[in-house]
Write a structure and sequence with these properties.
The protein is of the alpha/beta class and 279 residues long. The protein has one domain (23-212, 241-269): NAD(P)-binding Rossmann-like Domain (Rossmann fold). The protein is 42% helix and 14% strand. The longest helix is centred in the middle third of the chain and has 28 residues, at 128-155. The relative contact order is 0.14.
């Protein structure tokens, strides 16, 4: 008897190929998601997407006022929300944040590392303090949040970690060197975590947004000539908005991505493959 045949003469390989197709669910009902940087902008948009898909939410950022406003939007969807004011540059605070969210809901299924900062200035003017702060918030905080989330996800039989990167994963533009370095580290961190967490059923992926119009960038995009310059390199002819991340967020948080890990989804309106690196 061939090693590929069973006693009944069927090949295990053929049995897999002929097995009934099952459509994975995009629903997040019964899931718990923690979103850092969730008080505004892209983090809030991702939290709203997760809530619309059925998840209960824990929101973290430094501003309690922003968190309260964001929580009201999530409650309006009909989902439960916990606010956890946190400086993600502080490792002890990050660990407390994760444990508080998991303790409140009785577990944790999804972590979105959306918190981030950027300083715009020429490369030789950055200080050691600038370096330490950007690396702490953009990279160190995300790493230790994932580390703290792992045991809670292990208890649930798996989980999803989504790191919010940037088109700077691939492009470099002037005056944001430290941001670019921190995001380059995040891309490699995503890959490293995905490798070591895969055995626990934890998928680790990244979303890399291009140019997005949020409250943080409103002053820029509100100037017509700056707007025109910015969108001139985007084939779709407009900046993104937080709702443009909803589809990728729900995909990577749901069972529909259970065989996807270590990957990056670029959400940039086609800018990356337009051949331009215009600032």
């Amino acid at each position: 008897m061939s090693s590929e045949e069973t006693a009944g003469g069927e090949s295990p390989r053929r049995m897999v190929l002929d097995s009934e197709f099952t459509m994975p669910s995009f629903s997040l009902t019964g899931r718990v998601a923690l979103v850092t940087g969730g008080g505004r902008g892209l983090g809030l948009g991702m939290a709203l997407a997760l809530a619309h898909a059925g998840a209960d939410i824990a929101l973290a950022s430094r501003s309690a006022d922003e968190l309260e406003r964001a929580a009201g939007m999530i409650r309006a969807i009909g989902r439960e929300v916990l606010i956890v004011p946190t400086d993600v540059g502080d490792v002890a605070a990050v660990q407390k944040m994760v444990n508080q969210a998991a303790g409140h809901y009785g577990g944790l299924d999804i972590l979105v590392n959306a918190a981030g900062i950027n300083f715009r200035r020429p490369i030789d003017t950055f200080t050691e303090e600038d370096w330490d702060r950007i690396m702490a918030v953009n990279l160190k905080g995300a790493f230790f949040a994932a580390q703290a989330a792992r045991p809670h996800m292990q208890q649930r039989g798996g989980g999803k970690i989504i790191n919010v990167g940037s088109i700077i994963f691939e492009l470099v533009v002037p005056n944001i060197a430290l941001y670019a370095i921190s995001k380059g580290g995040m891309r490699q961190m995503t890959r490293a975590l995905s490798l070591e967490y895969a055995g626990d059923g934890i998928c680790v992926n990244a979303i890399a947004p291009g140019r997005f119009w949020t409250k943080m960038t409103d002053a820029f995009f509100s100037v017509p000539e700056l707007y025109d310059s910015a969108v001139s390199v985007i084939p779709m002819g407009r900046p993104g908005t937080p709702s443009d991340l909803a589809g990728a967020t729900v995909l990577l948080a749901s069972a529909a991505s259970d065989y996807i890990t270590g990957q990056t989804i670029f959400v940039d309106g086609g800018w990356l493959y337009n051949g331009g690196v215009k600032a």
